[in-house]
């Protein structure tokens, strides 16, 4: 079966096989690890019907639909996403969804979800990519005008700032940081002046410091990040339990399904801290191999950007890759204690239907860009 897929991907106008295989492998690992990390909690919780398969079945269903959607999207010409009608509708729907989320009940002090019966939608996941789609299309049109601060920097900071601000109102600094960080990277590649890059760097540092200082709970996170054992049963609890999980995994791990920290010690082990469970069950080797897969995904994404057919495709592929890369870096850094605790899922691995579906949609766009870059190479050879 794999040989048939590879042969299909080697044909003219087909997707990057390595990129496709890496995405599918990460999704498969994610579904398996969601089951392993969540089975104990769901089995011993009435809220989930004492069903150990609760999260596994949901994540599996989202993965199945998401992969089909990814293949469908991969056949749609990515240049259609630069149309103003698509961008305006996408930005409007995203903005309305972010505002609507503020009127739903808070979950753990944050308002990030729009609830539709038994289903939930997290609009901040959509916001990350709609800013990428807008920036890629607009920067590609402007060309040399990108060197002007008024025309080449301010409009993108304004758009990114609006969406990041709406996300911040829902108490989600990490996603707001990813939105702004990705925009800055796209502006740098888009050709802005060096002096503007310096100003953006200073502004980004100021933004981070300001929004940490204005919220007492963020200040507490930074303080307990420096020494979580000051409050081992409170603010430092989650990081300490994550360290216990990673350290007990050793080199080869305890084995699939053998994690102890998932048994109500590490909160929400199938979400933001699933990497700690991977470390406990598969050890250093498992963590290393997963990180290598993520690096492979990012390098293939950057290769697609470099080989893109036009500037729009290059920026779009770069933006999608940056979103995935920044999320992965932040998640692993948080779990390992390299930065303060914040809620960022590990792409394709952590539980969450919204994040998985939207990431797979973006992956489909990335695959389509790779199709066009391969077509260009074939035409050049002729």
Automatic annotation (TrEMBL):
This is Probable peptidoglycan glycosyltransferase FtsW. Belongs to the SEDS family. FtsW subfamily. It is a multi-pass membrane protein. GO terms for molecular function: lipid-linked peptidoglycan transporter activity; peptidoglycan glycosyltransferase activity. Its main location: membrane. The chain crosses the membrane at residues 20-41, 53-74, 86-106, 126-142, 149-169, 175-192, 197-214, 282-302, 314-336, 348-371. GO terms for cellular component: cell division site; plasma membrane. Peptidoglycan polymerase that is essential for cell division. Pfam families: FTSW_RODA_SPOVE. GO terms for biological process: cell division; cell wall organization; peptidoglycan biosynthetic process; regulation of cell shape. It catalyses: [GlcNAc-(1->4)-Mur2Ac(oyl-L-Ala-gamma-D-Glu-L-Lys-D-Ala-D-Ala)](n)-di-trans,octa-cis-undecaprenyl diphosphate + beta-D-GlcNAc-(1->4)-Mur2Ac(oyl-L-Ala-gamma-D-Glu-L-Lys-D-Ala-D-Ala)-di-trans,octa-cis-undecaprenyl diphosphate = [GlcNAc-(1->4)-Mur2Ac(oyl-L-Ala-gamma-D-Glu-L-Lys-D-Ala-D-Ala)](n+1)-di-trans,octa-cis-undecaprenyl diphosphate + di-trans,octa-cis-undecaprenyl diphosphate + H(+).
